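Note to self: keep these together.
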Amino acid sequence: MKTMIALFIFSAHVAQAAGIPEDENIQDLLEGQQELKSLEVIQRMGLNDGATKLDLWSGHYWPHYQGALGVRYREPNFKTLISRDEKKFGMYKKITEKWPTYSFKNEAMNLLSPAEKYDLLVGDYTMAMTKFSWELGSGMVSAVPTWRGICDGWSSATQMMPRPIKSVEMTSPSGQKITFFPEDIKALGSQLYARNQENPIFLGKRCSVKIPNPFSNACNPTNPGSFHKALVNRVGKLGKSFIADIDPSTQVWNYPVKSYSVTYYNVLSNEESKNFKDVVELFKDHHRFKKGFSRHNRTGYIVGVEVKVKYQDLRPAPLSVEDGAEYDKVLTKTYDYDLELDYSYNILGGVASAKNLPDFIWAPNDGEFPLSTIEQEQGIARNDKEIFAQARESSKNGEPLSVIVKELFELSK
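Structure:
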């Protein structure tokens, strides 16, 4: 009796897992347009390859264990002192406290961190943004994961904000001239999105447990069917991008899609073609197919897919005073999966050959620009006095003011 119950539960789980899960419906990624789901139509429209029309820019993820936006990335001592070692972290922090921002004059001010420059710009001599940043990595440094930072903010900001091209000189309330380099501006834009973006479009689930429950789909990767349709519809047809957690473990690494290229293959013979009809296999004699008996119940055909996806990549903060595509990095990932098709070649789902598909995919909400909490509560400030007052209060929560960040990006274009 116990065996029969166990088998029933397992069978129910398998049936539920077939096809694309409900939480991976890509419709919200399509901006109201009709979803393309037929490989025949997709191929006819030339969407086996596609690229975003956005000028995605590379940036740093400002890891917490290094002091986040508080680190003086242009200072020579930084690279020799900062590390996973708690003692060295403490030494570097002491140096920043020993040499406070007011001791930096003229050209030396260029060595200050993005957070310090922001604090000076808004006349905050309590250095609230800087203190918030350093607290993220203080204490027992070994307990702060090296992967934790603001890649979620960067991966959104690079889609939603124009590339900062040139340095911008701003004047503080006390008359100080402060130069914000493109990397400083990127950092503040990424921080704004990391702290304040709302209502992102989210598909799938984050894997947050080290030992997944085999009867739960909490740590299942994105279904190949939804991933493929997201590439074709969002990137290929709309020219937009979406973000993927490219690490299949409990870590989260967010990267925006730059382009993709599809090659089809026969799942039995491995014969390849850019035309799926040359290699599609009729779904019969189920035992011949990988996971043949856990397929969508309307599966008529199966075709293999090898897709090369190029992601805009992270990279350490450079020392350049201008920015351009020559400073960007690109990360290429290859995914191998098959697609389940109905008899009209519509995508029903699929099975991956390896466990390297993203845990989840998501995109920032195109209709909403992030506002700091204080801007949401009090409204957008109307003059410099109100702006600086709001900014000083907002910095206590590590939130840059949106009006300041927008202005820096506009001036840097």
